[in-house]
Amino acid sequence: MAQLASTVASRTWGFVRRRPHDFKVMMARQSIAMFLLQLSYPYDSIFTVGLGATAIQLGLVHSIGLAMGALLSPLAGLLIDRYGLKKVFLAAVALLILSPLFYSIAWRWEIVIFAMLFYYAGFRMGGTSCTTVCATS
């Protein structure tokens, strides 16, 4: 069993070492982002309800964010083609930074809508950027 684990670990490490630098950066970014997201995401709904949102309003907040992400997905590809992968990726990071800032200043649940919009827009643009890097690597 230890031999199997060692073989899997060495093959995985070998695979990662052979990847281009951009792929490694995206892999590290995704790993760190998902770790940090999972620290706070379960509490977003509790926070929104604590600000006065009802269950239907909470669903509305998430639906607006998901619709924004769905509409932005094809646009993200066009933006990458027009402005370049690096600029779109940095814009996605900026949007993802704005999201927790809006959560931190929210005094009413309606402000959380903006935080969700920034989150889903940044997540979708970053996801499209990551997919592009992985596809070209």
Descriptors for this entry?
single chain; 137 residues; mainly alpha; 5 helices; globular
**Number of E-type strands:** 0
The helicity comes to over 70%
Main pleated sheet? none
Helix/strand-derived category reads mainly alpha
Radius of gyration: 18 Å
Q: List the total number of helices.
A: 5
Mean pLDDT: 85
Beta-strand residue percentage: under 5%
Description of the structure:
The structure is a single chain. Helix content is 91%, strand content 0%. By secondary structure, it is mostly helical. It is globular, with a radius of gyration of 18 Å. 24% of the residues are buried. The model has no long low-confidence stretch (mean pLDDT 85).
Structural topology:
Blueprint: H1 2-18, H2 21-50, H3 55-83, H4 85-105, H5 109-136
Helix pairs in contact: 2-5, 3-4, 3-5, 4-5
At a glance:
The chain is mainly α and 137 residues long. The protein has five helices and no strands.
